[in-house]
Amino acid sequence: MREPWAQESLKEGNVYVKSKDAYPWLSYKMAMILSVDWSSGMRPSYKVYCICTDGRTEINEWTRSDFTWMDRLSETR
Predict the structure, then answer these.
(1) pLDDT of 40-66, one tens digit each?
(2) CB–CB of 46/26 below 8 Å?
(3) In whole angstroms, how far apart are CA 43 and each of 12, 21, 34, 51?
(4) How many CB atoms lie within 10 A of CB 32?
């Protein structure tokens, strides 16, 4: 499994783009983490602002595995 994010921290403000290796049907072309919710314990959930390949925008809840086919574009300091 492809996990480019496995060794990095997924934190608020980071921006991700669909990787060139992603499946063609992957509907998200860009995502920015709005907030991280640690209330569930060791497995955080992420509120993510997404831009879809058809131009729509959405705010979704993601888990770490949802970032599998995304590459980090920028990271907040």
Answers:
(1) 777 889 999 999 999 999 999 999 999
(2) no
(3) 16, 26, 17, 24
(4) 17
